[in-house]
Amino acid sequence: MSDLHREVSDLETKSATAARLFDIRRIIGGLFVIYGVIVTIAGVFASDDDLKKAQDVNINLWTGLAMLVLGLFFLVWLKLRPVKPGPVPEGAAPGRGAE
Amino acid sequence: MQSPTYLAEGLRLPTNALDYTILAIYFVVVLGIGFAARRSVKTSLDFFLSGRSLPAWVTGLAFVAANLGATEILGMAATGAQYGVAVTHWYWIGAIPAMVFLGLVMMPFYYGSKVRSVPEFLLQRFDKSAHLLSSVLFAFAAILIAGVNLYALAIVVEALLGWPQWVAIVVAGFFVLAYITIGGLSSAIYNEVLQFFVILAALIPLSILGLKKVGGWDGLTDSLTESHGDNFLSAWGGTGIGDPNPLGANWLTIVLGLGFVLGFGYWTTNFAEVQRALSAKNLSAAKRTPLIAAFPKIFIVFVVMIPGLVAAVLVPKIGTAGSDLQYNDAIPYLMQELLPNGVLGIAVTGLLAAFMAGMAANVSSFNTVFTTDIWQRYVAKDRDDAYYLKFGRLITAIGVLASIGTAFIASSFSNIMSYLQTLFSFFNVPMFVVFIIGMFWKRASMKSGVWGLVAGTTAAMVNYFWIYKQGVIDIPSDQGANFVSAIVGFVAGAVVMVVVTLFTAPKPEAELAGLVYGTKSPGMEEAPEEGDDAWYRKPALLGWGAVVLAALCYLPYSF
Description:
heterodimer, A: 99 residues, mainly alpha, 5 helices, 0% strand, B: 559 residues, Sodium/glucose cotransporter, globular
């Protein structure tokens, strides 16, 4: 095994990302739900000028609803398929996360 | 010296408090991701490669988002406004085959050899001279590109929002510095995934409204056929060898130059991209990273091309002396014309997010190469890991400050900058030839790597700056000349590698394990993770599926 191979393998056993990094689905879901609500409300109260500018499409309403759906999709996905706790590599159990 | 105006006057957007609220929320989330990722950074591997532990869908979306910087979005919309449907070549032939090749063919060597960067692969396969040359050039190019990105952001923000340029440079630079220094690559990748969705939430409504404005796809094609001719709406029309077309390229230079050499050079050896795949959690996820990225990549062209085409209809003189608008203004112009407050805020946020992600991709690859390939290898060897982690954070800050400096220099000497960028772009070409020969020809000698790089770069530059610019051969456009230079650089690099190999010593066979086709790297017999054998996760199916889909996409625009 090359030195590089050994060095990186060693670092991999000490790495904390798998065990401690949060799930991005929560952030995407949360942000898009917030954005979805804000933009949908802007769509509900759209002025005539807004509609005229957007070619008579209530673009805020549609975009807002679509963003809301995407946000909820990520939250539901997170709920249904939570990440299993990171596997503890063999032989590295005692040191992992405790240094 | 005076900087050329990038965006026209009079593009100021009618933003209000609602739009600024949306933007402010985004900035808070960006910083929040950085702080939340902080606790996962324990080793240098966590900081530089997310501990090689991310799932494939995250690295895949980051892979496509790292390339979806704002200069790319505005630039490709501009290409659409200027050359029409031919812009699809940059996606369907210029990107998809290369991404599939990276995933199916090259990834086992990249990921399996456990290298942490693209230059590190060259060190393992060839020798220190190839390694040092590519590391140093990559580090310089990354800072340069990050700085140019920042400068482009400042110009756009000044035109759209009215902020002074220095404010935009400092604010955006500060946010990128903060979230990468704190959270490392995980933070950069997570922000890229977020940016991917925000930019789509901006571009999709813009494309739909744009189409509605010009009477749908039929209205669009009718107007453009009348004003620009049939070939404007055809991908391959007018690309016969010897036929004149605005792109200045024929089908052969498109397929070989753009598709094969430039596309493969960029997608398979640019570390800012490959780094995303190297951070995946296992070989299967690493292989799937560029393959998952390929599917959005196939369709993204529509949401940048359509605004470009719509702008060409609404402003027939766009990009000519008779108009205030440059080609690059296509998307900002449509934002101003079509988007009401609310979606407008999303669009501004998406554009700013794309600029920052484009810069962050370069910064997060720069700090890795500078620390592991230059500092750890040649300057401060054999320190403990905590030292390299600390140094990585320090060099990230220095890198951001350097690119802020570059941005300020670019604002007064933008000609020099574009010249330098062209210069660096020629280095990507021979990288691919060196990789491909190195991976498939066991005999290719240790010294052949560096000579292939030098010869290929020189040949591409000589072709571009002397043969083309001095008019020795007549090539109709910069784009066309770029494609031809790439082919020349590729061939020259290959020939020199073969010749040098014949006269120098090969690398000892034992050191090539896992680096060359037909060898196995030790310790890579790890069992596939549960569920990785599901049919929809089969790399071959994903890869060939993407190639077939891209080919099918060409059909409606080819006859």
